[in-house]
Amino acid sequence: MATTAISTTPRAWIGCLACYNAGRLVGDWFDAVTADEVTTYDVHGAHSRADSHDELWVMDHENIPVKGEMSPADAAAWGRAIAEADEHLRPALLAWVESGDYVAEGNSDLPCVPDFVERYCGEWESFEDYARELADETGLLDEIPEAIANYFDWDSWTRDLAFDYATHDNPEDGVFVFRVM
Ligand SMILES: [Zn+2]
After folding, report:
1. Domain extent at residue 70
2. Which of 36, 82, 93, 180 has the least C-beta neighbours within 10 A?
3. Which residues surround ligand 1, an ion (CB under 5 A)?
């Protein structure tokens, strides 16, 4: 079985805002989960530390499913929310949030990971593949003689089933399937 080399670790490029405003990019990549613990000392080093250079800002990020810049505190909150999911589930969690059709935690935009886990049905080549597997698992046609089962209208059944599910594209290939609740 092939392993995906793609990193799912949420990361933030944290820079000094005063330097940025002066036209200099002074900063580095950090793990998002601890983005709020990064200090100006961490991005400047010992030499160029100045009192006015006390504000940090996340100017770029990866594996955080929102667009644009944010505060280190927000990046840390996103990092912790994403890290709640097991690593192999994170691409699906990111796709769920990016779809806009997800369950958020309280008043925040952060995903509710238990709700994600409850809805997620795995990654599949297509929804049809998931439907076939589900039919097998639930023994949909077990009681039906094979000669008759061969006439089962899979397309129609799958179309109806699809009303209870949402699919989001897997950037790698195929789709992530979610139960609609
Ligand atoms: Zn600075």
Report:
1. 11-83
2. 180
3. 16, 18-19, 53
CA of 16 to the centre of ligand 1 (A): 5
Sheet architecture: strand order including 56-62? 27-31, 11-16, 56-62
Q: For residue range 16-54, what is the model confidence (pLDDT) as tens digits?
A: 999 999 999 999 999 999 999 999 889 987 655 566 788
Query: Tens digit of pLDDT for each residue in 98-152?
Result: 999 999 999 999 999 999 999 999 999 999 999 999 999 999 999 999 999 999 9
Q: Are residues 74 and 116 in the same domain?
A: no
124 C-alpha to ligand 1 centroid (Å): 47
- Looking at the structure, do residues 170 and 142 belong to the same domain, yes or no? yes
